TrEMBL record:
Top-level division of the source organism's lineage: Eukaryota
Lineage: Eukaryota, Fungi, Dikarya, Ascomycota, Pezizomycotina
MF GO annotations: rRNA binding; structural constituent of ribosome
An example Gene Ontology CC term for this record: mitochondrial large ribosomal subunit
GO terms, biological process: translation
Descriptive protein name: Ribosomal protein L6
Domain (Large ribosomal subunit protein uL6 alpha-beta): residue spans on this chain: 160-240
Gene3D superfamilies the record matches: Ribosomal protein L6, alpha-beta domain (3.90.930.12)
UniProt cross-references to InterPro entries, sorted A to Z: Ribosomal_uL6-like, Ribosomal_uL6-like_a/b-dom_sf, Ribosomal_uL6_a/b-dom, Ribosomal_uL6_bac-type, Ribosomal_uL6_CS
PROSITE patterns according to UniProt: RIBOSOMAL_L6_1
Keyword annotations: Ribonucleoprotein, Ribosomal protein
Family: Belongs to the universal ribosomal protein uL6 family.
Length: 255
């Protein structure tokens, strides 16, 4: 049934009065309905956007090492239609020469009299720029150390009958005088892998293999390829260990 006419008017008056009057909220609900500007809002994470600890550290250039900064160029990326701008940096030293390509948003300041290099980024609020800040610093530091002192990697062969030798293979070499690492790892055939141009190898002991070169990334990649033939296993501790790599042994499975 419909309400009487007088009752309807009373309801309308009450609704109009409630709309015209200010709504009072409990004190604990007031902060939830307050609007704050976008600049004053905080992210979910409580950490602040700080500078890169590595990126802001100046790099020292040792004597005999020279840096050459090139001009920006467009590098085609097969995974994106956007133009990618890069800047080449050539690091030359007594042991060789390496070239590093850095993004255009990474700022490079080279103080030649003081022999110091300081890296920065254009916008520190951009996450990808902050990520490449420290990464570029690490790459450049490895290149400077590589052309001045060199990098090494020691491979330890742990297992009965495991042996490593460095021998020439005239029929298989891709360049004159190429060295080949020959590993005996319990297979029916020896494992033979040719060294890249900028690397050297030696076997001071039958179970030790020393890799030397100026490019740390190339050395560790080659060491990882050798390690794949005998990955360290956790029951007998056998395998190929790179540098200070260790493994935690497990107890033998009992049926």
């Amino acid at each position: 049934m419909l309400a009487p006419r007088t009752g309807r008017r009373a309801l309308e008056r009450a609704a109009a009065a409630s709309c015209s009057s200010a709504v009072t909220l409990p004190s604990f609900l007031v902060p939830a309905f307050q609007t704050t500007p976008a600049a004053a809002r905080r992210n979910f994470s409580a950490t602040t956007n700080r500078q890169s600890k590595l990126g802001r550290t100046p790099l020292s250039i040792p004597p005999g090492v020279e840096l050459t900064i090139g001009d920006l160029f467009v590098k085609k990326d097969m995974t994106s239609y956007l133009k990618t701008y890069k800047r080449p940096i050539t690091v030359t030293g007594p042991l060789g020469k390496l070239e590093l390509e850095i993004p255009d948003y990474v700022e490079f300041e080279y103080d030649e009299p003081a022999r110091k290099v300081v890296l920065g980024v254009k916008d520190r609020d951009q996450r990808n720029q902050r990520e490449m800040w420290g990464t570029t610093w690490s790459y450049l530091n490895n290149y400077i150390m590589g052309v001045s002192e060199g990098h090494t990697a020691v491979l330890r062969l742990v297992g009965i009958g495991y042996r490593a030798t460095v021998e020439p293979r005239p029929k298989l070499e891709t360049y004159p005088g190429q060295q080949f690492v020959c590993l005996k790892l319990g297979f029916s055939h020896p494992v033979e892998m040719g060294l890249p141009t900028s690397m050297r190898a030696s076997a001071p002991q039958p179970t030790r293999l020393l890799l030397e070169g100026i490019n740390k990334e190339e050395i560790m990649q080659f060491a990882a390829l050798l390690r794949r033939w005998r990955v360290p296993e956790p029951y007998k501790g056998k395998g190929i260990f790179v540098n200070d790599e260790t493994i935690k042994l497990k107890q033998k499975k009992i049926k």
